[in-house]
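ESCALATION

Customer reports they have been waiting on this structure for their group meeting. Please prioritize. Original submission:
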Amino acid sequence: MFFLICGLLFWNYFSMSLTNSMSTLIGNAALIQRVYFPRQLLVVASVGTNLITAAIGYGVLVIVLLAMGYFVIPWMIVFIVFLVLMTAFTTGLSLFLSAANVYFRDLEYVVTILLQLIFYSAPIVYPSSLIPVSIHLAGAVVPARFIYGLNPLAQF
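Update from on-call: job pushed to the front of the queue and completed.
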């Protein structure tokens, strides 16, 4: 149960940061045209807002885990390092995708669909042992477990 909540909190932070930041440059076009400031601040602020929301969610989760008798204090350093690395990755990807979304407006919808595909291929809801070693698809043998292992979230 708590494994699922931890995974969903990280996933919600990542997906909401990407989807919210992609529309910030287009949504604030009037402000960008009138006032000179670094446009990256809009995207960073969007990721920062989602980071605060995720931090509140994880704070509540830690309090619940401590109240139920789980000792999670040693893992807090690992969590903070992972959250910093994930924030750096999310910010970089958000900057790239928000700039690309200015030129390719439909990219926002494509990314939303890709995020749903990645969510259902991530091992948050089901164990990786359910994935077969290979699948026979259209007469060819596809190494399913190898392809599944290419997902960066499959390691967790």
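Sent to customer with the following note: The CA atoms of residues 9 and 54 lie 6 Å apart.
Escalation resolved.
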